[in-house]
Design a protein that fits this description.
Length: 186
């Protein structure tokens, strides 16, 4: 694997670029304060923009690291910051990483995350040399299941009752998925 870090990527409708500290206001307003977006996630909505600011300071610092793969998603047409996508836990020996993503509710259902994730997969497999990208989602999170399915991540198993939703305490199953380099090229 040849680390290249968070390079700017472009798709038909999107720019994927490094996080900057100045993104806090838009990220907070567009999704980080929204309980519907965080419903199935491992973090709670930010109650105060100060939380977002602190987080983005850390993200902007991390962005300088060669093994960090973490993009802010910007809509080309309007310049709006609409979401986040990352490949976490990049493991040099295993050549694996795990995807995470979220998008502001106003932009759901228009194919944006599928478009962003396909480009991230292309970059990770073709330019960086990852062998496998993992994904996991709550079984009830049908939108995320569909994004992973459209991007070629195959379901590999279910961890029953593995996660409690942070806001409601409901226990849900977690579906584990993955895609290998040769499958992406097929
Ligand atoms: C999951 C998420 C990233 C999807 O982003 P998106 O840009 O709306 O995704 P896309 O438009 O590329 O694809 C969504 C697909 O799921 C389908 N879908 C969405 N909600 C659905 C539902 N409740 N039931 C069935 N299908 C659903 C859409 O129809 C679409 O499939 P299609 O193209 O075959 O019609 C976005 O909803 C989100 O940010 N959710 C909150 C955060 C989150 O759950 N992150 C993932 C954690 S694992």
């Amino acid at each position: 694997m040849q680390h290249k870090g968070t390079r700017t990527l472009e798709t038909r409708r999107l720019i994927l670029r490094r996080w900057q500290t100045g993104d806090a206001e838009a990220a907070f307003q567009n999704w980080m304060n929204d309980p519907e977006v965080t419903k199935y996630l491992t973090w709670k909505p930010h109650g105060d923009i100060a939380v977002t600011r602190l987080l983005l300071e850390a993200w902007a610092e991390e962005a300088e690291e060669e093994n960090c793969y973490h993009w802010a998603i910007v809509l080309k047409e309007t310049g709006e910051l609409i979401g986040d996508i990352s490949v976490m836990h990049a493991n040099d020996y295993q050549e694996t990483g795990s995807v995470g993503y979220c998008l502001g509710k106003r932009w759901w259902g228009r194919g944006y995350m599928t478009e962003a994730f396909r480009e991230v997969l292309r970059y990770c497999f073709e330019e960086v040399g990852f062998y496998r990208i993992n994904g996991s989602h709550a079984a009830v999170n049908l939108g995320s299941a569909r994004v992973m399915e459209k991007c070629g991540l195959v379901p590999e198993g279910v961890r029953r009752g593995a996660f409690r939703l942070l806001l409601t305490g409901e226990r849900v199953d977690i579906v584990e998925r993955g895609i290998l380099r040769e499958e992406f090229h097929r």
